[in-house]
Design brief:
- This protein is 8% helix and 37% strand.
- The chain is mainly beta.
- The strands form 3 sheets. It has a 3-stranded antiparallel sheet, with no helix packed on it. It has a two-stranded antiparallel sheet with strand order 3-4. Strands 6-7 form a two-stranded antiparallel ribbon.
- Strand 6 and strand 7 form a beta hairpin.
- The chain is flat, with a radius of gyration of 13 Å.
- The N and C termini lie far apart (37 Å).
């Protein structure tokens, strides 16, 4: 399995990622926009991967922002494929 889901079961990976305040992932291959439980301390902004053919999906973007910074983040756009635009104050 490729993409972000293949890494979420690795405690070392999730602990490392959780040590940052803002994290950006590309090529997640996630086909959904639901929250990932392992990053509950983060506000999650995402765009799903796009199905390009019968062979699979491409792209996918996920941005994680620590909940302590939530009041300083404004969503600019979540309607474009593979793009998340946020304004940090």
């Amino acid at each position: 399995m490729e993409g972000l889901l293949s890494k979420l079961g690795e405690a070392e990976f999730t602990q490392y990622v959780s040590s940052f305040d803002i994290i950006c992932f590309t090529e997640t291959f996630l086909a959904f926009q639901s929250a990932l439980d392992c990053f509950a301390d983060f506000v999650q902004f995402s765009r799903p991967a796009v199905k390009l053919s019968d062979q699979g999906r491409s792209g996918g973007v996920l941005i994680l922002v620590k909940r302590t910074l939530e009041n300083f983040v404004e969503i600019i756009d979540l309607t474009l494929d593979n793009i998340v635009l946020l304004k940090l104050d």
